[in-house]
Every structure is written in C-alpha cells, then in structure tokens.
Specification:
Elements: E1 2-7, H1 11-22, E2 27-33, H2 36-46, E3 50-53, H3 62-71, E4 77-82, H4 87-95, E5 100-103, H5 108-119, E6 124-125, H6 127-133, H7 142-152, H8 157-164, H9 168-182, H10 187-197
Parallel strand pairs: 1-2, 1-3, 3-4, 4-5, 5-6
Helix pairs in contact: 2-3, 4-6, 7-8, 7-9, 7-10, 8-9, 9-10
Organism: Thermomonas hydrothermalis
Domain HTH luxR-type: 133-198
Modified residues (4-aspartylphosphate): 54
C-alpha cells in the first residue's frame, strides 16, 4: 500500500482528492490537513510514504513544508499538486527535494500513476513545466524572498523587521536588493513580478 497524507487548504478540493485516491486499491489516505503547520504535525505522527501537498496554504506553504521535510531528513517523498504552472515554483520545489510536481488541471488518472511512480523511486514532473523551468533563474535570496512576501502582504519595513527578527535597516537593504535585481520601481512591483515568475 502507498500511504498518503494530503495537505490542501480548500475543503472541497481536499475532500474530492481524498475520495478520488481512496478508489485506488493500492493507495491509502492516512489523513488530510487544511494547512502547512497541521500537515507538519501529521507527518511526524503518521509517517506516510508520500506527502501530497498544494503550494499556497495558510501559515506554511507547500514549498516551505517540503524544505522542512528535507531539512529534518524525514523519510517521506513530497509531491506537489497545484494550479501554479510557474517554472520558478518548480525550480524551488526541486531544490527542496520534491519528487513530483503536477498541475490540478491534469487528467485525474495521472495523479494515481504519478504517486505510484514516485513511490517506486522515480519522479513525476509536468513535462511542459520541466522544459520551461530551465529558462530564467530565480535571482532572489531566501531573506529577500521573505521580506518581499511580507511587503506584498502590506507590512511596513518596521513590521517586517519585527516579524523576521531583523533590524529595520537590514530589511530595507533586502527590499532594495530585490527591487534592483528585478529591475522595477518599488517593492509592490517587485512583489507582483516575483509572484508572476513563481519566485515567491
């Protein structure tokens, strides 16, 4: 049996995916989580073979979850299922050790087969996205990305500094660097462009 933990913040999608996968004779859904933090706790309690996760979730994104799995060397393979066909997301996912990256608009039967492939030790990556991913490299550092994401949520530099336990000046430098690298006029434009490219 392939033991799967499902992390998806949209209740209807989460229920539909769980029901769909439960129809497969060789796949068992151990549990479902509505956000990244609860998925992280469930990972440690349930020890699934595969974590199937969305990217955009409250608290802890699917990419951050994958990075945490990698950092703690948990014996679980991560597969991302998302609406975001962005090469930047795929590159970051692969850097975080993700074994599968699939789009939600792919045919349903592809999902179960992809989980089997990953369980056997292979990879399951959307082919067109894989091709596009090797075009433009992500110029942002992790800290620039964190500061820019919070700026995009409307936080001031002082609030970002407090949230990240950094000095106000350091945050201003990170935001200036990000704006300069992306060749835009301000932090909001930088946030929008980085989101569009899949770098946030």
């Amino acid at each position: 049996m392939i033991r799967v933990l499902l992390a998806e913040d949209q209740a209807m999608v989460r229920g539909a995916l769980a029901a769909l996968l439960a129809l497969e004779s060789d796949i068992e859904i151990l549990g479902t989580s509505p956000d990244g933090e609860s998925a992280w706790r469930a990972l440690q309690q349930l020890t699934p073979d595969i974590l199937l996760t969305d990217i955009e979730m409250p608290g802890l994104t699917g990419l951050e979850l994958a990075q945490r799995v990698q950092r703690h060397a948990l014996p679980v393979k991560v597969v991302i299922l998302t609406t975001f066909a962005r090469p930047g997301f795929l590159r970051r996912a692969l850097d975080a050790g993700v074994r599968g990256y699939l789009l939600k608009d792919a045919p349903a039967e592809h999902l179960a087969e992809a989980l089997r492939q990953v369980h056997r030790g292979g990879r399951a990556i959307d082919p067109q996205l894989a091709q596009d991913a090797w075009g433009e490299a992500d110029p942002l550092t992790d800290r620039e990305r964190q500061a820019l994401r919070l700026a995009g949520e409307g936080l001031s530099a002082a609030e970002i500094a407090q949230r990240l336990n950094l000095s106000h000046g350091t945050v201003r430098n990170y935001l200036s660097e990000a704006i300069g690298k992306l060749g835009v006029g301000n932090r909001i434009e930088a946030y929008r462009l980085a989101r569009q490219k899949g770098w946030l």
